[in-house]
Amino acid sequence: MKIGIVCYPTFGGSGVVATELGKALAEQGHEIHFITYDQPTRLDFFNQNLYYHKVDIRTYPLFEYPPYELALASKMVNVVKYEQLDLLHVHYAIPHASAAFMAKQILKTHGIYIPVVTTLHGTDITLVGKDESYEPVVTFSINQSDGVTTVSESLKKDTYEHFPITQEIDVIPNFIDLNRFKKQKKDHFKTAICPNGEKLLVHTSNFRKVKRIDDILEIFYRLRKEIPAKLLMVGDGPERRKAELFCQDNNLVDDVRFLGKLEAIEEVLSVADVFLMPSETESFGLAALEAMACEVPVISSNTGGLPELNIHGITGFLSNVGDIEDMVKNTLIILDENNLPRFRENALARAQEFEISKIRPLYEAVYERVLTRCQRELAVN
Ligand code: GMT
Question: Which is it for strands 147-150 and 169-171: parallel, antiparallel or unpaired?
């Protein structure tokens, strides 16, 4: 198949899922065309089946806000037409699903029918999409898609609850490449960070409010009173500065390190003992899956799709959002040397259920179904 993938190219779950899926599909022989405004972060090598088409955003003094959606729709029209794509797969509803709808209508006037599959990733539904400033467009473009997927049962439920959706939704969870995400021997790294055998906690995210960065630091602050420990904060975003100030004010600077955005996250995860994800909402929790693949148990909130990944008492623990006391208590249970090896083993076993080779065919099945249905409908009309 020739597939156009539209996504955000930056660090972040939806872009990572879209890029890794495209790479896996290309390995299967599909021709994959990424359409986005910048080189996707994890697309930094050559493969004969992978293409990247950059959306040109022309600005003009009249525009206070450059019309990205129009530039994207125009690019989709161009790529579908000249590369003769079979299908468009758009990741994150805003503005990709509505731009795809517009491209589809334009292409119809050229005698081309392009089926569109939309994958909802979370905040496009749970935070941004349901706001009245976007809701009508999000609802319309989801209903106009030929196939819709969500990354968890929880997100599917939220989508039906918040939007009058008439479409069937397929749930296809996030996935992991276990060849890349696996525990590596990095003893020298561990010794450098934890010279006195301290326990190592890790968090990775985009440091947005939804990640509850304050809770992470509070958990660590209380935990450190109980046991010697260090915390690595990987990533960057709006809450980082506040977090750094908290560490300065609370005498934590020697024990908490902010590493910024890292490409080789698996190296850090390889030396971690516990991964923290106390998010306000999380449609799946890809960062937690990456940790589990590196044999790191997870302390998380019980919100959104997290219970579909992290199994309470087995691969880690789930707590109510904001229940810091419970999270500290559970972290201590995991870190007990009598428990840690078992939690590590279970985390890996759970991650193996989401290996990319098991999940990629689920997307291919949606593509096949959508294409067959569209071809049948076209033949009838
Ligand atoms: O977590 C983020 O803020 C990034 C966000 C995104 O849209 O890129 O991630 C969302 O999609 C990921 C991939 O499907 C999911 O694993 C994350 O749980 C989800 N984030 C939220 O729901 C907050």
Answer: parallel
CATH, residue 150: 3.40.50.2000
Please work out whether the CB of residue 151 comes within 6 Å of at least one atom of ligand 1: yes
- Closest C-alpha among 202, 210, 186 to residue 235: 202
For the chain, how many structural domains are there in total?
2
Please state, for a pLDDT cut of 90, what percent of the chain lies above it. 86
| Nearest atom in ligand 1 to 305's CA | 18
For residues 162 and 196, membership in a common domain is answered with no
Instruction: List the domain range (segments joined by +) for residue 211.
Output: 187-352
Q: What is the pLDDT of residues 68-97, one digit of tens each?
A: 999 999 999 999 999 999 999 999 988 999
| One domain, residues 50 and 170 | yes
Is residue 133 located within the same domain as residue 33?
Answer: yes
Ligand 1 mean position, distance from CA 340 (Å): 28
Hunting for tokens 């905040």 — which residue is that? Answer: 123
